[in-house]
Specification:
There is one protein chain. The chain is built from 5 helices and 7 strands; from the N terminus they run βαααβββαβαββ. By secondary structure, it is of the alpha+beta class. The chain has a single domain, classed as Aminopeptidase (3-Layer(aba) Sandwich). It has a 7-stranded mixed sheet with strand order 1-2-3-4-5-7-6, sandwiched between helices. α1 crosses α3. The two termini are 25 Å apart.
Length: 159
């Protein structure tokens, strides 16, 4: 179905095409709307030093049959054996199990590359599908981390 691979500058047009949809940005914290190709290029370039410093692991989610990029999954703020998980996919790829599988693969990469023992994640409260992705991957909801002024629900996975 899908595989993960590193992102490259040549991915900027595909990232832009997917991320420029308002329905994608409304549920993410880091994708502004409107979103253009220069923003995608800048994001890819900003990731490079963080990846080299082992503070970030970013992967393109691609369909195995066509190699088409359909979204992004990342482990951010990597500190020791802890990280934060983030992900998004284009609207045409919602509700297909793609993100659930991408998260599973990314967690495996994180364990192998960093020996991760704890991963946190959050999703917008109006996006319950994202919460189901986390639960299917073994995360537990952490209401103690939630703030009534912020519209996000928090989860934790102890590996």
């Amino acid at each position: 179905m899908i595989r993960l691979r590193p992102c490259h500058l040549v991915d900027a047009p595909a990232i832009t095409a997917l991320a420029s949809d308002r329905r994608v940005s409304q549920y993410t914290q880091n994708i502004p709307y409107p979103y253009d190709q220069s923003m995608a290029e800048d994001w890819i370039k900003r990731c490079e030093p963080l990846i080299e410093e082992k503070k970030l692991l970013v992967r393109a989610i691609v369909l195995t049959d066509s190699e088409q990029l359909v979204g992004i999954v990342s482990l951010m703020n990597i500190q020791g054996k802890k990280a934060e998980l983030g992900y998004w996919v284009g609207v045409d790829y919602w509700r297909r199990g793609i993100v659930t599988e991408a998260v599973r693969q990314m967690l495996t990469l994180g364990i192998e590359a960093f020996g991760l023992e704890r991963v946190i994640a959050k999703h917008h409260e109006l996006n319950p599908a994202s919460g189901r992705v986390l639960l299917k991957n073994g995360f537990t909801r952490m209401p103690s981390l939630e703030n009534s002024e912020e519209p996000h629900l928090y989860y934790e996975l102890v590996l």
